[in-house]
Amino acid sequence: MDRQAVEQIVEAVGGKENIAAATHCVTRLRFALKDEGKVDKEKLENIDLVKGSFSANGQYQVVIGQGLVDKVYAEMVALTGIGEASKEEIKDAAAQNLNPLQRAIKTLADIFIPILPAIVTAGLLMGINNILTGKDIFFEGQAFIDVYTGWADFASIINLIANTAFVFLPGLIGWSAVNKFGGSPLLGIVLGLMLVHPDLLNAWGYGAAKEIPTWNLFGLTVEKVGYQGQVLPVLLASYVLAKMEIFLRKRIPDAFQLLTVAPIALLLTGFLSFILIGPITFAIGNLITDGVVGIFDAVPAIGGLIYGGLYAPLVITGMHHTFLAVDLQLIGTIGGTFLWPMVALSNIAQGSAAFAMMFAEKDNEKLKGLSLTSAISAWLGITEPAMFGVNLRYKYPFIAAIIGSAIAGIVITLRGVMAPSIGVGGLPAFLSIFTEFWGVFFIGMGIALVVPFVLTFIMAKTRKKKEV
Ligand SMILES: OC[C@H]1O[C@H](O[C@H]2O[C@H](CO)[C@@H](O)[C@H](O)[C@H]2O)[C@H](O)[C@@H](O)[C@@H]1O
């Protein structure tokens, strides 16, 4: 690790004294600065390690890149004495600068980011299962497991491992949400799993059920159904649980806390969840899903154009993970998401625009190297190095990528491309797309690869001609 470069970063953001707190995500250092006016942006962006920097969501974000950012952060912690505890502090410090809507969006993103690895893994494994069980991939009219029947159970076990994260999704969300709201994560897991308890009628069987089982609470009838695939019930229940736990902890003497806090909080939240929170949020969740599906059904091209085009600008703000909630809700209710395939194509488009810069700016050695490595990263699902390191610096590659991504978005949305899960973005994404949509998805990939490349190259040449 280049210690001197890390020192330069600290200096450029206004010195150790200007850092209220600092943390990092997959690719960026995130600072809560006392005074953002003290940042020397030019000096900062001239440091080799730095791919770009900007202020968003009350944080000053410095793009370093996947893998490296952890090391830079560790070095900075050693250098400045900023403790690991500052991870929470920075969120609080930065949240002070946000309005309530921004804060709600950020909260949602913060809840879904920690569960992303489990979901992406599920998507990748579902992809393997797709290949083994999808018809017409290796043999006409038949799946691989139809011809090699011995592989059927192998595929079945892969599928079981893959969909575990989805079957118990409320458990994962409960853990992350209660943690975010300041309660005990373990209680969050219990709460989430309670909502998908096997004694309840599985939500996925609700529509087909001849009779809905009920509880009778002194005359009040409560449906005995689970909340598989639902996002809102567990989110709101987690909020209630965490706040109740905090309330009780403050009022109950230490000696009685173990005996009282968790049982009371869980019991009350449990009853509230089945009687009120669950049924109400279930209905709201379905309304939101119907709304999103309705828009994409009515005007698919516009939906594709907007989401395909605007996803990359959303990544700039760091708020893109908020949409994971919508993806998961779609997967839980209609069995797949038509939004995430566009995310994957947007990743590819950013990579291609950056890649084109390698040829357009042949004489710029530093840019050439960065173009290639950041393009590869984007093609594998991480776009910040390409966006901040190359495309946004020159602006036109970013615009070219957005155009390519929007066109690809329109094409795949018009054909209703869906994924059973969120998977690894970029080029490997096809694995996580339902196999019947592979053909049109490959066309979308082709557009996302070629259009940004060609447009960037043409724009670069046109600009050069004008300069002469
Ligand atoms: O901010 C990091 C990256 O976040 C997104 O990608 C990650 O989440 C995707 C699901 O939303 C997943 O498919 C991908 O494999 C993950 O890397 C975003 O799409 C990227 O542009 C961004 O770099």
TrEMBL record:
Gene3D superfamilies from the UniProt entry: Glucose permease domain IIB
Membrane topology type: Multi-pass membrane protein
Location in or out of the cell: Cell membrane
All copies of domain PTS EIIC type-1, residue ranges: 106-468
Ranges for domain PTS EIIB type-1: 3-86
Active site (UniProt): C25 (phosphocysteine intermediate)
Record CDD domains: PTS_IIB_glc
TM annotation in the entry: 111-132, 152-174, 186-207, 227-246, 258-284, 304-326, 338-360, 372-391, 398-417, 437-460
One cellular component term from this protein's GO annotations in UniProt: plasma membrane
InterPro entries: Glu_permease_IIB (IPR036878), PTrfase_EIIB_Cys (IPR018113), PTS_EIIC (IPR003352), PTS_EIIC_1 (IPR013013), PTS_IIB_1 (IPR001996), PTS_IIBC_treh (IPR011296), PTS_Sugar-Specific_Components (IPR050558)
Alphabetical list of NCBIfam families matching this protein: EIIB_glc, PRK11007.1, PTS-IIBC-Tre
Protein name: PTS system
Species of origin: Mesobacillus boroniphilus JCM 21738
Record lineage: Bacteria, Bacillati, Bacillota, Bacilli, Bacillales
